[in-house]
Amino acid sequence: MRRSTALLTLALVIAVGLLAWRVWFAPRPPLPALLTPTHTLLNFGDVYVGTAVPASAMPRWVNSGGVAITVQGVGVAGPNAAGFAWRTNPPNGPFGAVAPGGSTPALMVFFTPTAEGPHTAVATPQAAPGGGAVIPMGLAGNGRYQIQSGDLVFLGGGNLDPGSALDFGRVRVGTPAPGATKRFRVTNLSANALRITGIDFVAVERAFTLAAPTLPHVLNGSQSVMVAIDFTPPAFTQPPNQKKFTDGVTVNAETVTDAAQKHRFGTALCGVGYYPADEPERRC
Predict the structure, then answer these.
(1) For burial by CB atoms within 10 Å, which of 161, 172, 223, 231 has the most?
(2) Which among 241, 182, 238 is positioned nearest to 207, based on CA atoms?
(3) In this structure, is residue 27 part of a structural domain?
(4) Are residues 130 and 238 in the same domain?
């Protein structure tokens, strides 16, 4: 082989090697932004119709990509989107650019079922167009007028309609307590004695209170007890001159001989507080 040919071959090999080295070791472009939720599904379970319940978890979206993405908020869509709401934690937490490995503000998500039955929706970050990909988070819950587990059930009597909330009607703000009282009967279906240990309310703004029975209360097998609930609407800022108050009350019991066996019965509550005014009546 002539010397000139050998030099040309060597130069070609070096050139190819340099090109391969540059291709192999050249910095690769960063992965596009990808927002992934910390929870794929928030399931609220059974919630009284008309009451707002926060999720036990506070989800965020983490940017698992290699470039920042700008988030302007979170949108909720789906067949029951009206039943779900959110706010940042802390309130008014800033949205904006989410760096690689960073996350959106944590969200407090609330479920307020508007009717009985399953509710579903999806929450999706609202990112700037072309900024990357986002993965939505599922939302689910079940609206219930009455809930029951174990051997404590409603078997009739009193004002309770199993297909609706316990309706206290309209009560003028400032009416001496109790403004209105409703009653319903719960029964122990088992042969074992049950001890009613507590009665819980859902709403933070307390308009309903327990009037009877005195707790703890023991129900022997097949016995029943009348539960009385008072509604006294608290003062509220005007306008408007009317305000609907909703809540849920749950009667909690345990088997006397085995406290690990739990029982409960509950129902949704609704009443309207009003100040005298010349306007159409609001109702539950």
Answers:
(1) 231
(2) 182
(3) no
(4) no
